Amino acid sequence: MEAQRRAIAGVEFVMEKTRLLDRLRGQLNERQAKVLLRMLRESPKGFQRPKRALARTGELRHARYWVPIPGTISEDMP
Fold first, then answer.
1. Which one of 20, 37, 73, 77 has the fewest beta carbons within 10 angstroms of its own beta carbon?
2. Higher model confidence: residue 33 or residue 47?
3. What's the pLDDT tens digit per position in 49-76?
4. 3-state DSSP call for residue 64?
5. Any residues with CB less than 8 A from the CB of 17 and at least 6 apart, and which?
């Protein structure tokens, strides 16, 4: 029963993902599409990131994200 439940959840996830991508077709720029596809590639559980795994500067359309690894160029970002 559990395997059947997971299979049904997987099929429903693929169907919803397809509906979302169809609805957004032609509305996303290349960068937005790349991020969305990366998040959807994960699973029905979604993209999960540890807290503070990404650093952000700016707001809304001016927001920029990077991985704050010491000794990298991104470490110096504002």
1. 73
2. 33
3. 565 666 778 888 888 877 667 665 554 5
4. strand
5. 40
pTM for the whole structure: 0.53
Q: Are residues 36 and 13 in the same domain?
A: yes
Q: What local confidence, expressed as pLDDT, does residue 3 receive?
A: 92
How far lies 73's CA from each of 53, 65, 67, in Å? 16, 13, 10
Task: Return the sign of the alpha-carbon dihedral for residues 8, 9, 10, 11.
Answer: positive
CB 46 within 8 A of CB 38: no
- Phi, psi of 64, deg, nearest 5: -130, 140
Q: Is 68 exposed, middle or buried (0-12, 13-18, 19+ CB in 10 A)?
A: middle
Q: Are residues 33 and 54 in the same domain?
A: no
Same domain membership, residue 60 and residue 38: no
Amino acid at 7: A
